[in-house]
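Question (not urgent): is this output format expected?
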Amino acid sequence: MSKLRKGDTVIVIAGKDKGKQGTVLAVKNDRIKVEGINIVTKHQKPNQATGSEGGIVKQEAFLHISNVAILNAQTQKADRITYQFDEDGKKQRVYRSNGEVVATA
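Got this back:
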């Protein structure tokens, strides 16, 4: 299970898009798709059933989850996540650097 979720703001820490920020669009096993990051060119066939046209399409591709880190909104730096339990016994995500609760989207 990944500590990153859909809607989190992340920063790329390795690869061709290093330093760029974006919002998580999808998480699949150990891969992650981030808005505006890892743009690839895909040659797509037309499909009458869905009404999509053919041609060359630019879209986001999945990248490995180890190449991104969650962005701490207060410090504006990459951070790590740990888990803690609140007073009610609910599990919540917490930034490692300052202990603040991660805002869920």
